[in-house]
């Protein structure tokens, strides 16, 4: 499966990222998205998000009970991305938009 993601280029990802930016939508980052066989692809995708001003929304995966609250891998990945606090969506930001 990893070989499929190698063929997804910026030309495919950029329209999605631009749409997220235009609609002020943050992109989720969870253990499921960083602890899989597509780590290089996800790194490239998240870097593109940050480069284009799209915030990331870190969280644990509620689809699996064992993953709820498991954030260590996400925090390490955010460090590798060079994400700054302003690159992350805060829930208080949502209250201000209402």
Characteristic key phrases:
98 residues, mainly alpha, two-stranded parallel ribbon, 2 strands, 52% helix, 6% strand, globular
Outline:
The chain is mainly α. The chain is built from 6 helices and 2 strands.
Descriptive account of the structure:
The chain has one domain. It has helices spanning 2-5, 10-22, 31-34, 39-51, 72-81, 91-97, and strands at residues 27-29, 56-58. The model has no long low-confidence stretch (mean pLDDT 86). By secondary structure, it is mainly α. The protein is built from 6 helices and 2 strands. It starts with a helix and ends with a helix. It is globular and about 35 Å long. Strands 1-2 form a two-stranded parallel sheet.
Q: Could you give the topology of this structure?
A:
Blueprint: H1 2-5, H2 10-22, E1 27-29, H3 31-34, H4 39-51, E2 56-58, H5 72-81, H6 91-97
Parallel strand pairs: 1-2
Give the SSE string: HHEHHEHH
Quickly count the helices: 6
Domain count: the total is 1
Distance between the termini: 40 Å
Structural class: mainly alpha
For the secondary structure, the number of strands is 2
Strand content: 5-15%
| Spatial extent as radius of gyration | 14 Å
Average pLDDT over all residues: 86
- Report the biggest beta sheet as strand number plus sense, adding barrel if it closes: 2 strands, parallel
Helicity level: 40-55%
The parts where pLDDT drops under 50 for at least 5 residues are: none
Strand order of the largest sheet: 1-2
- General shape: globular
């Amino acid at each position: 499966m990893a070989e499929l993601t190698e063929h997804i280029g910026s030309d495919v990802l950029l329209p999605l990222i631009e749409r997220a930016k235009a609609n002020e939508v943050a992109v989720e980052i969870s253990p499921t998205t960083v602890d899989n066989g597509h780590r290089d692809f996800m790194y490239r995708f998240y870097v593109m998000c940050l480069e284009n001003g799209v915030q990331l929304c870190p969280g644990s995966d509620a689809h699996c009970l064992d993953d709820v609250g498991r954030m260590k891998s996400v925090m390490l990945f955010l460090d590798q991305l060079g994400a700054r606090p302003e690159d992350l969506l805060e829930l208080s930001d949502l209250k201000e938009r209402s």
